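Re: [ENG-882] Designed sequences occasionally contain unexpected residues at chain ends

Forwarding the minimal case from QA. Structure tokens:
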């Protein structure tokens, strides 16, 4: 731009300043009629690159001045760009250093948490193993009264359950880290499932003189669609925590419902509240973090891996819902809320439902297999004795075989209501035995009995011809309910106990 300072409005110097603000890289040469050094200095300060005195300039002067102005402007632009690049590089370096420092702090904190977690995990695993081995040795090597033996066996049983729970947590953690939860959506009765879960935790609550109550604040939900195994795991985690951290008062489970007006699908809202120790703000912030526990010290009062809530939240979200801490007050208790949507439209939950509260005491022995014949194919004599006892106490007549070949022969020559088949056995393993039975036209239910609890095992069992599967260590109630379900489906009859026997 060639700008004359002697414009009629005498606004050239102020205009130059405005032009330079709007166009910081535009080359500007000013033209002046007189050599007024003060005016020229001010023009250069306002952003001009050069000046020419009109009465003295030539074509050569004009060309030189314009080239000079362009070069100076480009130099100024390069300097500005370098300065901006330097500023950005400095800011990036500062951010990088800050990020590195933060990452280092987080890594150190994570390492400390993980190291403490592993130390506690080692303690949690080795402690029950030591107790199981110790009391087993006492029973085998010393003479004890029946009362002493009973106490020892109760301690062995309690610690074996604790150890099994720890192993489940470790396996579930691996699934969480790999993000490989694959829900199995089926239809089931939600109120019946809740009743079963609360009843299963009644003994633990009764042992601490804690009131345990289930409150159904909606119509009974007879058809609900989600993964009942995962839902049961979530609620068992919440209930066991609530009972563990409550020393007096009550633990309460409340079932409510919500409806999506557009999809007509229902969401089960389940709250688990307690009058226990509650959580501080610091503990709340770390509640759902991996390898984190409210008390991670070596002198902590409560055991456990610290994985239950993390796994439960992951499970809830894998089912399309969530798990949140609804409220908590130190020394007064906490309330957790689980929200699980039904995968399909469900015909339950009414708007005029009345609240039904059920208090639970010690559960009674289940006789739900009374009169049924069961073939147990299992090579471990200890497992034969244990599972046979479970089934016998439930009223079943049980016959035993030690390998798959014997199992096939017995099933084809005798009339059993259900076959319970181990997978890993000598002579012929369970998958081959079941495939042979199905190939021979055997239609009665065959339930797989396996210690393999990893993802995909159920699919493998079903593909081999099994009707369902039960994992080891065997849960007595789950075993009986599974057998009842498939016997009922196969024969179209109800168990004798359900008929009033």
């Amino acid at each position: 731009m060639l700008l004359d300072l002697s414009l009629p409005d005498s606004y050239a110097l102020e205009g130059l300043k405005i032009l330079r603000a709007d166009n910081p890289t535009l080359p500007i040469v000013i033209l002046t009629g007189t050599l007024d050094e003060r005016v020229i200095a001010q023009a250069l300060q306002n952003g001009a690159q050069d000046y020419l005195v009109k009465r003295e300039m030539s074509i050569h002067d004009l060309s030189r001045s314009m080239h000079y102005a362009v070069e100076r402007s480009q130099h100024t632009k390069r300097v500005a760009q370098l300065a901006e690049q330097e500023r950005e590089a400095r800011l990036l370096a500062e951010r990088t250093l800050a990020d590195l420092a933060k990452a280092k702090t987080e890594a150190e904190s994570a390492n400390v948490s993980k190291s403490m977690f592993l130390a506690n995990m080692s303690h949690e695993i080795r402690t029950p193993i030591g107790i199981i081995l110790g009391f087993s040795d006492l029973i085998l090597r010393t003479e004890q009264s029946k009362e002493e033996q009973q106490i020892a066996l109760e301690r062995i049983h309690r610690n074996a359950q604790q150890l099994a729970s720890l192993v489940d947590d470790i396996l579930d953690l691996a699934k969480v880290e790999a993000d490989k939860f694959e829900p199995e959506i089926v239809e089931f009765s939600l109120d019946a499932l809740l009743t079963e879960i609360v009843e299963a935790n009644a003994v633990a609550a009764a042992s601490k003189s804690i009131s345990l109550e289930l409150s159904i604040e909606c119509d009974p939900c007879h058809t609900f669609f989600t993964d009942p195994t995962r839902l049961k795991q979530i609620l068992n985690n919440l209930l066991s925590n609530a009972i563990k951290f409550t020393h007096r008062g009550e633990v309460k489970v409340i079932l409510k419902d919500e409806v999506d007006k557009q999809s007509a699908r229902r969401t089960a809202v389940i709250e688990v509240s307690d009058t226990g120790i509650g959580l501080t703000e610091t503990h709340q912030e770390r509640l759902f973090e991996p390898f984190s526990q409210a008390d991670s010290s070596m002198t902590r009062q409560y055991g456990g891996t610290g994985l239950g809530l993390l796994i439960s939240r992951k499970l809830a979200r894998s089912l399309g819902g969530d798990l949140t801490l609804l409220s908590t007050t130190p020394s007064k208790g906490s309330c957790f809320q689980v929200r699980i949507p039904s995968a399909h439209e469900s015909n339950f939950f009414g708007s005029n439902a009345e609240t039904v509260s059920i208090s639970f005491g010690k559960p009674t022995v289940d006789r739900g297999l009374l009169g049924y014949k069961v073939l147990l194919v299992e090579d471990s004599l200890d497992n034969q004795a244990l599972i046979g006892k479970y089934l016998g106490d439930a009223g079943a007549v049980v016959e035993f075989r030690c390998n798959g070949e014997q199992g096939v022969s017995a099933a084809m020559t005798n009339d059993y209501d259900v076959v319970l088949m181990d997978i890993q056995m000598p002579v012929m393993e369970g998958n081959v035995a079941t495939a042979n039975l199905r190939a021979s036209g055997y239609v009665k239910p065959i339930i797989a009995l396996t210690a393999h609890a990893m993802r995909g095992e159920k699919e493998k069992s079903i593909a081999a011809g099994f009707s369902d599967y039960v994992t080891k260590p065997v849960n007595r109630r789950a075993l009986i309910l599974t057998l009842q379900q498939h016997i009922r489906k196969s024969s179209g009859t109800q168990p004798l106990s359900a008929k009033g026997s």
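QA comment: On inspection the terminal residues look reasonable. The mean pLDDT is 81. Proposing we downgrade this to a documentation issue.
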